[in-house]
Design brief:
Blueprint (H helix, E strand, L loop, with lengths): L2 E4 L3 H13 L3 E7 L6 H5 L2 E6 L10 H11 L3 E3 L9 H9 L3 E2 L4 H8 L1 H10 L15 H11 L3 E9 L2 E6 L5 H16 L4 E5 L5 E9 L5 E13 L2 E7 L6 H17 L4 E9 L5 E7 L6 H8 L3 H9 L16 E8 L1 E2 L5 E2 L2 E2 L2 E3 L6 E5 L6 E2 L6 E9 L2 H14 L1 E3 L5 H7 L3 H4 L7 H7 L11
Parallel strand pairs: 1-2, 1-4, 2-3, 4-5
Antiparallel strand pairs: 6-7, 6-8, 9-10, 9-12, 10-11, 11-14, 12-13, 14-21, 15-16, 17-20, 18-22, 19-21
Helix pairs in contact: 4-5, 6-9
Length: about 450
Amino acid sequence: MRKVLVANRGEIAVRVIRACHDLGLDTVAVYSQADAEALHVLHAGEAICIGEAPSHKSYLKIPHILSACEVTGADAIHPGYGFLSENANFASICKSCGVVFIGPSAETISLLGDKAQAKKTAQKAGCPTIPGSDGVVPSMTEGLAIAKQLGFPVFVKAVAGGGGKGIRVVHTEADFEKHFLAARAEAGISFGNPDVYIEKMIHNPRHIEIQIAGDKWGNFVHLGERDCSIQRRRQKLIEECPSPVLTPKLRQEMGEAAIRIVKEAGYYSVGTVEFLLDEKKNFYFMEVNTRVQVEHTITEELTGIDIVALQIRIARDEVLPFKQKDIRFDGHVMQFRINAEDPAENFLPSPGRLDFYIAPGGPHVRVDSACYAGYTIPPHYDSMIAKLIVSGKDRSETIRRAIRALSEFHIGGIKTTIPFHLDILRQQAFLKAQVDIGYVDRLLASGYSFGQSKED
């Protein structure tokens, strides 16, 4: 591997380019017409425009990306997250073209990308799974029968789902048909696959995910957990590690379960195994993300391990440089997603020009971003402006430091989620770690209005 093409944009493209340069690798950025002045274009050694602003005409255009490889001589592709990162067909085409896909094999992506097959894999690995249908539900009639047997409420979920799309909660038998058809329709539009399955709804769970890494020689480790329970409509907003509710014993059990699952799947690369944790501390397998996660940063800060660089090293056929006993978890870390949205107006998107952009600093504060003063947040893509990562010796110190860092973050010209984060950090339920994945949505449903804190 000599030259890496980064098939993505935004902060993750910048993050990957930096990791490549640290490893002595040349880089190629690809960009749409809307991203001609993007930071990843400026940081890469070379840059190639691959199409118009809409992602289906640029970042999702496989022939354009491979043509950029051919023109620049890139011999590897890092897909980042989103876009083509979990596309088994793309990984397979890369292999057939002699280009290294920095991620797991196409076969593994396909297996774990099918949520029903992933669930069967977890069951084979002896991991607890959420009660539900045995694979794809072929019809609404059969789905209703399964839902009645499980007992309402239930989830109807897209087999190829991700990012909170293609999911419906059904509370009563009378509502089943409406939500079943809606989930199938959204799945077809979002993923090109309308298949769905059904799961029993776990009441008030926390979202806990385990970061794993495995090489091509059968060595595996887990790098601890991330608690991603602060979400709005199943979109993560704040992540922290370690989880304030996990015991060392439970952490070990979940980490070992995650490793068994990826071993069963023939996995190599870095990845994340996601679980739900119920009120009685029972955990259930949810899915595997076969890519680097948005929130990988907090695990990096907690363990001192560069996860993106590790992912590249694994793709170069290197052996994991450590064993499980070498992994240390020191302190506490939180990440805050700073998005171009107005929390006071039900998180209405707020794209536009950044009149000014002043990031926080100081010890134990990290900002991953692709933005700068004068940059325009385009309306075509994800609304993320930056990720603020804050560390402390414990959770209390991290929260205090986060309030300081968020208050130092000044962004002009658009609305952001900074006031939302400041509000959450002052909520007693959050301070006492008494939240679950429905906490933010329940606050909004009760009429609570986020975004009342001061913002430029």
